[in-house]
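Chapter summary example.
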Amino acid sequence: MKKLHLFLIFLLFAVTALAGCSSKETSVSKNESAGKTIELNYWVPFSGGDGDFMKAMVEEFNKTNPDIHVKMLNLKWEEYYTKLRTAVAANQGPDVAVAHTSKLGELVPANTIEQLDPIVEKAGIKWDSFNQNILDSTVFEGKHMAIPLDTHAMIMFYNKKILSDAGLLGDNGEPKMEPGSEGFVQFLKQVQEKAPKNVMPFVATSNGNAPFWMWWSLYSQMDGHLLSEDGKKAAFNNEKGKEALQFISDLVHKDQLWPKNVKNGGEIFAAGQAAINFNGVWSTGTYEKNQGLEFGAVTLPVLYDKKAAWGDSHTLVLPANKEPDEKKQQAAIQFANWLAENGAMWAKAGHVPSKPSVIESPEFTEQQYRNDYVGVVNDVNFMPNHEKLFPIGDILRANFDLMMNGQASVDEVMDKAEKEVNQLLAK
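The structure predicted for these 427 residues follows.
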């Protein structure tokens, strides 16, 4: 009996000790969990140099922020948004993702991304630290839906050697041209007359985005609108819209200053075979790698009433989650703001940073070319935040291609595009 009593005492002691040990282990486990590095899945749709620059930025963030680790997945542009929407619908979306401003009109109404105001406020990030023009394009019904990273716009590149040899380069290192659309055409005619015969006065890719972006830039300089105020009707088939498109048509067909059937205008300019090239800012990074190419880069000339240009922005969004993790959301916002704060790294790809403080920093101002076109950040006329913006753009591109290929007149193209857009909006 005495032995049994001693055994029970020993057993009780052992159980108590184990319970204490277990309690300690549970406490340690919780503390370890609380101190663990937060893992973020980050999706991007970048190709070429953009992908390399963003990869370098993520690596730098991970080095300098040991409490957060970002894993980047780079998907093809063609399938990116489809995969993003599918993943969010299955509640398997990334923690943070890149979204173009032009795509927010689709993502916001579908509840694909989170509203950011309460998350950003808790993180202590100030919206007024971003460029207002870019920031405004990310606001829906008074709510901020994205952290702007940049703006990327159409600008003008020019070959300094060709223009200098032709006596058309000013003392300021910029093209000597008279203002307005007539001055621009006269300048190109002088290039045609004075430059070698194998030099194209003006070059841009003949089909697809380039004519569309150029039209929107010129139409925006006349304060043109794409859609009616309620977004239910096309509003571009008017005198201003036709004038902008006729200017482009005349460059190709009447004045023959822009060659027909150019498959890649950027390659021709990079090879030193063109004087003027309208292209996106991202081409800067490509052109400066071409040894022997003496070029300049400035905002688009004012051919009509005011400065304006086509442009879009890369932004950072938080994909919707049925069971949001507050710590991950805060970490994602910190990461997004870090990318914007370190926009000088991203500017190496040619993009213009979204934060004025970055634009004013030595890390940015010391970069060649960027300062010459940085003003485009305020010139960009963003297209309306509409859920059918991309299919509208597809209609305009397809019809403008008919004009570029000489298959239809400006009036025919605008009438046809208006009809097709209105049919789309009526669905």
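To summarize the output: The chain has two domains: 39-149+313-379, 154-310+388-426.
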